[in-house]
Specification:
The protein has 389 residues and is mostly helical. It has helices at residues 19-41, 51-83, 88-113, 118-121, 132-140, 144-151, 161-180, 184-208, 215-225, 229-243, 247-253, 256-272, 279-296, 307-314, 316-339, 343-374. It has one domain (19-374). Residues 382-389 have low confidence and may be disordered. Residues 18-362 form the Acyltransferase domain.
C-alpha cells in the first residue's frame, strides 16, 4: 500500500514523537491538582475551589491511561505481525521490570518509613495506618485500587491506585490481542462496549438501591472510579487504525479541523470543570484523537517534541509516584513563608518548588533505581521493537 502523505509510520526502532512530552503534561496536571488538594488539607489558602483545578488531576490520569493503551497495543500488534504471536511471558517480564521496582519502593516507604519521618510529622501524619496488614497485602499483590476503595487513602501512596488499573490491563490485554487476530478492531470495540455496559448496569443499580445499596453494590460502584480499563481500551483504537493503515478514517481524524476541535473541546471541558454522564469516556476519546495526531500526523497542530519536555517525560513515572512526598516537604518546610505571598506569586512559587523537588526525586529514582532494572529488560523478539517506557 502506498504510504499516505498526511501521516507517518513510526521509525525503526519504534518511536512516536511528542508522546514523552505529553507524558510530562499528564504528570504536571496531576501535580498541580494535588498541590492544591494538599494546601486545602493542611488548612492553607488553596485554588481547589476552581473547577478546572478540581478536574485536571483526574483527566491527567485518564491521559496516562489512553497513552498506555495506544503504545502497548501498537507494540503488541507489531510483534504479532512480525512473529506470528505475542510472547506474553516476555511482555509480563518487561512490564514488571519497568513498573515494580519504583512501585514497591514507594509502597515500603509509605507503609514503613514516611509515617515516622520527623520532617512530616507536624503535618498530621502518624504511625497509624488503618487496616495496615490488609492494606499491605493488597498493595503487595498489585491491588492498590481495591485497597483504596476498601480502606481509604494512605499518605504518599493513594496515587498508586492507577498502577493497579494498568497492571490489570497488562494482565489481560496481550491475550485479547492474540485471540482477536485479524478481527482486532471489532473485538476491541466489543470489549469497550462490554465494559461500558457493565459500568452502566452497576451505576443504575446503585442509584436504584438508594438509600441502602448494600456493601457489595457500594464497593462495585466506588471501584468503577478506580477501574478505568475502558479508557485504556479507547487508547487502543487509534493504535489499531494506524497499524492497519485505515487511510480513510485516519485522513478524517488527522484533518486540522478535527485536531483543533478535539483540542478546544478538551480545554473547554476542563475550564467548565463539571462531571457529566460518560465524561471519562468522552475525555478518553478526545485524548485518543490528539495522541494519534501528535504521534503520527505529518503536521500536527501542536508539537511537544522538545528536548527538555522529552527528558521530563522520561521521568514521568517517578514524577507521578513521588510528587506527593515533594509537595508535603515543600508545604512543611516553606508553607508558612509561601502563605505570606500574594495569591498568584504563592501559587507560582509553590508549583515551582514542588515541581523542582519532584524532578530531583524522580531523577534519583530513575538513575538509582529504575534504570538498572530497565537495562535488564528482555528485548522484544526483534530489534525493530522498542519497549514502551
Amino acid at each position: 500500500m502506498p504510504e499516505a502523505t498526511f501521516y507517518r509510520r513510526p521509525s525503526s526502532p519504534v518511536y512516536f514523537p511528542n508522546l514523552n512530552g505529553l507524558r510530562f503534561v499528564a504528570a504536571l496536571l496531576v501535580i498541580i491538582n494535588h498541590i492544591e488538594q494538599q494546601r486545602l488539607f493542611h488548612g492553607r489558602p488553596s485554588l481547589s475551589y476552581i473547577p478546572v483545578v478540581q478536574r485536571i488531576g483526574d483527566e491527567g490520569v485518564t491521559l496516562f491511561f489512553v497513552l498506555s493503551g495506544f503504545l502497548i497495543t501498537y507494540l503488541l500488534l507489531l510483534e504479532q505481525e512480525q512473529f506470528g504471536q505475542i510472547a506474553v511471558g516476555q511482555f509480563y517480564k518487561r512490564r514488571a521490570l519497568r513498573i515494580w521496582p519504583l512501585y514497591y519502593a514507594v509502597v515500603l516507604l509509605a507503609l514503613l518509613v514516611l509515617p515516622n519521618a520527623a520532617l512530616l510529622r507536624a503535618d498530621g501524619f502518624s504511625t497509624d495506618i488503618a487496616q495496615l496488614p490488609q492494606q499491605a497485602l493488597l498493595h503487595a499483590v498489585l491491588l492498590p485500587n481495591v485497597a483504596l476503595v476498601l480502606y481509604g487513602g494512605i499518605p504518599f501512596l493513594s496515587q498508586a491506585w492507577s498502577i493497579g488499573t494498568e497492571e490489570q490491563f497488562y494482565l489481560v490485554w496481550p491475550w485479547v490481542l492474540r485471540r482477536a487476530g485479524a478481527q482486532v478492531l471489532p473485538v476491541v470495540g466489543g470489549v469497550f462496549l462490554l465494559l461500558l455496559a457493565a459500568q452502566r448496569v452497576i451505576v443504575v443499580a446503585f442509584h436504584a438501591a438508594q438509600p441502602e445499596p448494600g456493601p457489595v453494590l457500594a464497593f462495585a460502584f466506588n471501584f468503577l472510579y478506580f477501574f478505568r480499563l475502558d479508557c485504556l481500551v479507547v487508547g487502543a483504537v487509534p493504535a489499531i487504525l494506524l497499524f492497519q493503515r485505515r487511510t480513510a478514517v485516519l485522513r478524517w481524524l488527522m484533518a486540522p479541523a478535527v485536531q483543533w476541535l478535539s483540542l478546544l473541546a478538551v480545554l473547554g471541558l476542563l475550564a467548565w470543570g463539571q462531571r457529566f454522564p460518560l465524561h471519562e469516556q468522552v475525555y478518553a476519546g478526545l485524548f485518543a484523537v490528539l495522541i494519534l495526531n501528535l504521534a503520527a500526523a505529518k503536521k500536527p497542530i501542536i508539537t511537544l517534541e522538545k528536548g527538555w519536555l522529552s527528558y521530563l517525560g522520561k521521568l514521568s513515572y517517578g514524577l507521578y509516584m513521588l510528587h506527593y512526598l515533594a509537595v508535603a516537604l515543600v508545604l512543611q518546610q516553606w508553607g508558612p513563608w509561601l502563605d505570606t505571598q500574594i495569591g498568584w506569586l504563592r501559587w507560582l512559587l509553590t508549583l515551582l518548588a514542588s515541581l523542582g523537588l519532584t524532578v530531583l526525586l524522580a531523577m534519583a529514582s530513575y538513575y538509582g533505581l529504575e534504570r538498572p532494572f530497565l537495562q535488564r529488560k528482555p528485548r522484544p523478539q526483534s530489534a525493530t521493537l522498542q519497549p514502551v517506557l
